[in-house]
Amino acid sequence: MIMDNLPLGPLLGVLALLMLWAGLLTSVEAAHHQLKAMRAASRSDKAAPLPELAFNLNSLILGNTLIRVLITVIATLIAANYWFYNGPTVAWLGTVSVMLVFAEYIPRRLANRHPVSTLLLGNGVLRIPMKIVWPLAYVFNVLAKTLLRPFLSRQVQQQEKNFEDDVQKTNRHDIVHEHYPRASVLSGIRALDSITVNDILIPRNEVDGVN
Per residue in 105-125, pLDDT tens? Predict the structure, then answer.
């Protein structure tokens, strides 16, 4: 078999490394949803701004799926080499057990306890890899929307389109403010030309009468 020429130690090391990456991706996704809920619950302007995901969520989902499938394939090959016909069953049970603990439960608990630090870690480590796989994630996302389109009503399709337009506008707005912070100041100065008397609040003690 092909696996006879491959040492077990490096394969287990690769599995451990892939498991760590899967746990990181899961924790970043959980932290993203946690901060999103916190941001929606806190409407106060005095609250400190919470960090946001620096890349597309679909890239994160695609990367996590690819890593988990690769873990399953390697584990199945190792188990088939040692247990032959019972190998797939052993690999299935072992992979499910280890993945649930180290790539699901523990990362999600850590993300719920420390969402800000988890998301900042993910933005620093995963920014470039997730942007590399984004075109492939975009293709799968479009494919999924195309398959679901016949089952959605026109109202739902319009709501999804409006939501995507709002997200794109928000992203462009954030990019402008990130790279051109003076743009908001200049737009505010230009807005002074369109201000009328009715837009200015007049104190009551200065009002002589109502016309």
Answer: 999 999 999 999 999 999 999
Q: Give me the domain span that covers residue 141.
A: 2-151
Phi/psi of residue 75, each to 5°? -65, -40
User: Taking the mean position of all CA atoms in its chain, how far away is CA 15?
Assistant: 24
Q: Which residue has the tokens 């939501």?
A: 163
CA 49 to chain centre: 18
Close Cβ partners of 37 (under 8 Å, ≥ 6 residues apart): none
- Domain total in the chain: 2
Whether residue 30 is contained in a domain is answered as yes
Task: For 43, list phi and psi in degrees, rounded to 5.
Answer: -100, 5
d(CA 52, CA 126): 13
- In a shared domain, residues 133 and 58: yes
Task: Find which of 37-51, 78-92, 100-114, 196-210 is predicted with most confidence, using mean pLDDT.
Answer: 100-114
C-alpha–C-alpha distance, residues 75 and 95, integer Å: 7
Q: How far apart are CA 84 and CA 73, in angstroms?
A: 15
pTM, rounded to two decimals:
0.70
Q: Judge whether 208 lies within some domain.
A: no
Cα 92 to Cα 18, 50, 62, 95, 175: the distances in Å are 16, 39, 21, 5, 44
